[in-house]
Amino acid sequence: MEYKPRKIEKKWQRMWEKTGIFKARDSLFLPAKRKRGGLKFYILDMFPYPSAQGLHVGHPRGYITTDVFAHFMRRKGFNILHPMGWDAFGLPTENYAIKTGIHPEIITKRNIKRMKKQLKLIGLGYDWSREINTTDPEYYKWTQQIFLLLYKMGLAYEATLPINWCPSCKTGLANEEVIEGRCERCGTEVIKKDLRQWVLKITVFSDKLLKDLDLLDWPEKIKEMQRNWIGRSEGWEIKFKVATTDKRQETSIKVFTTRTDTLFGCTYLVLAPEHQIIQKLKDQILNFKSVERYIEKSKKKTERERISKVKEKAGIEIKGIKAVNPVNGRAIPIFVADYVLIHYGTGAIMAVPAHDQRDFDFAKKYNLPVIEVIKPYYVKEELPKETPLVISDGRFEKAYEGEGILINSGRFIGMKSKIARERIGEWLTKKNLAKKAIYFKLRDWIFSRQRYWGEPIPIVHCQKCGIVPLGKKDLPLKLPRVKKYQPTGTGESPLAAIKKWVNTKCPKCKGPAKRETNTMPQWAGSCWYFIAYLLDKNKEFAWNKRKINYWLPVDLYVGGAEHAVLHLLYARFWTKVLYDAGLIKFKEPFLKLRTLGLILAPDGQKMSKSRGNVILPDKIIEEYGADAFRLYEMFMGPFDEAINWNVQGIVGMRRFLEKVWKLFDGQKSIVPIKEDKELEKLVHKTIKKVTEDIENFRFNTAISALMILVNNFQGKNYGVWYLKTLLLLLAPFAPHIVEELWQKYFVEKPEFKINRSIHNQPWPKYDPKLVKEEMITLVIQVNGKVRDKIEVKADISEKKAKKLATSREKIKKRIKDKKIKKVFFVPGKLINIVV
RNA sequence: GCCGCCGUGGCGGAAUGGAUUACGCGUGCGACUCAAAAUCGCAUGAGGGAAACCUCAUGUGGGUUCAACUCCCACCGGCGGCACCA
Fold this sequence. Notes:
835 residues, alpha+beta, 7-stranded mixed β-sheet, 4-stranded parallel β-sheet, RNA-binding
């Protein structure tokens, strides 16, 4: 019989769905049953956005990975939860709605249908009974409920802030969504805009988000990216008194620095344009007009402009006031410059041009003194007791930012910079001029978007009561129907135009009120969706608690690395909130994370519609079958590395499956003929290899081991057990063909039952004794070069090996009259004779 | 600029201190066939040699070691992330 993949694949996909073989067993969370049922394993994919283009061959790489792993763990006796859903709010759908006038809900439904069909084609064993969709009111009522929880916990607040605004998408963006000053979605230059916003206090969790990374089995790279994003830095806050013409008005400027050791080299201060002291002291500032003009100018710059002029540091001196350097009492000038950021540290810095490149560039431009206070260690010259003051006269070309020995620093001269850092800090602390401080780069999360297709924020603004949250019974607050989805561009969402919806009653005083018209960002629904798979939609959250705490946290999470600081950080944040609220028992959502490499088009570029290089899985599967497709995606290379799709590659997989098919074909039943010791050993070794490779995500080498096994079956007498084992090992990768062969040759009755499926057979075990080789090829080296090989017993002793080696003709020739200096023997591997 | 990762045949890759090139693709030759496809078998890093065999090859240069794709240093090239964060 011919191997016709599409025929058997359709058949088994239907059968598995009918019998529900891949459904997770919730009943096991009941303690009595848990004992019998084995341990749980929650394996999760980053759920896709249902786009109109559907899936290309790159998308399923992760889904196949989790599917292989889920199969493997199920066979090892774990109770598996492997669900799938749709992260469906977002701009592409909304933009399509604007173009066509079709409601986003309809577009979403259509896209989901299409993509679900594609996923099913691949034969992925999802528990579809738990499918979720973030745009379903029954789903987002929970998202809204969690928002209300955040509000009640004081973690959501309203603020009018200069935010990142994308003029093309006509919406505000989170800090994380701005890439090199451009919008993450459309690449338009982001500008600053003052807008009333909902903001989430993610910064409250800075420390926890940083520390708990240590608990996670995540790729070091992703952890490092989050660490950098959170950006903890330890230093000191130092008070600089301000000398003004008005002696009565005493004030000071606080700066944050990690380099207290360079304080003696501080020759001026720089304030961010937004620093409030400028307004406070405006009467004292002689050139306030020009200062104000500078501030206005820098406000109008786009992020992009600020970044593109990184090297050009410009500012303006504030005349009429001076700061006092606390270590030496020297009066120093104060500047305003937009290279100092208001939202980091104190919004003011002390400038040490000799030891900070940015300060150096600035000082050079404005001809400010450069005082050297750190000498690199390698300068071994004796330091005189009183170092003369060194003021730059253009001899410096670059700031020295490294560690060293202090000079020009009063009583700290000669001290190592690392130690001086602490000593100077402590000294000023005693004088009440400094204190230890920790700052984070992480900023609060701007949570509102001025668009239609997102979760409505369940808040009303009452003239009398102010901000009033909706009650649970008012949820879900559904999106109203609108005629036009166009963003207004005025900073209000299209919802603002729906008077009927906007005008409402205050839940508190029943007086007239207006609804919040901003919606939540794309990331809201995905912040908690791993919990959503466990919710019984008609029940309270608390009712689902046991289920949640049985299954969560997620044991293995697989997806793209592009979410390193967006989704993965936000989801961790919400988890910590829910934990603090006592609703869940885990502090981290994803214990183990593995990130995928992209599958690129054959031309090495990202697949995209605009490049016209998209390859669809549908066609590939139609031609070669889902099993060959799955095998190829796993075999292409290490799963975390980017790889080009190669049309030729899949041919080999199909050939391999044909070979497997032919091992069985034409036989009425599989009859053992003769046991083959060598083959039996190889089977055991293959079990070991495939098991270990799957455990370590080395799917490509697992498949190559199976190919080697099949190649060794060719033309040999094989026993029943060998063939059974082959199918059992191949099952996670090519689930359809193995089910077909299993049912046909190893199951008596034709009627299909779950427990007869190959996917419910225990994972094979190997005999450690048979994995060991009795005979090995001993490599004989002379001076580290291979000169001969001999077949010997694996446990051969050094003495014997040496005797044997030196008796070989080839070796004799090599060592002839030379003296043997030393012999290195690696048991079971090689012997190296050094002459 | 800073941080991280990666450079191995014609191609995807394997081997992370012990035989470089497993497995797959491609290519060549052979078998089967009237012929072709499919399939099966053999070969396939480069150079030299009639052959046994020899020499050289894991981005480049150096080092450690009996032994380096693997560890260390410098450089070159590519990819990803961050980017005025004091």
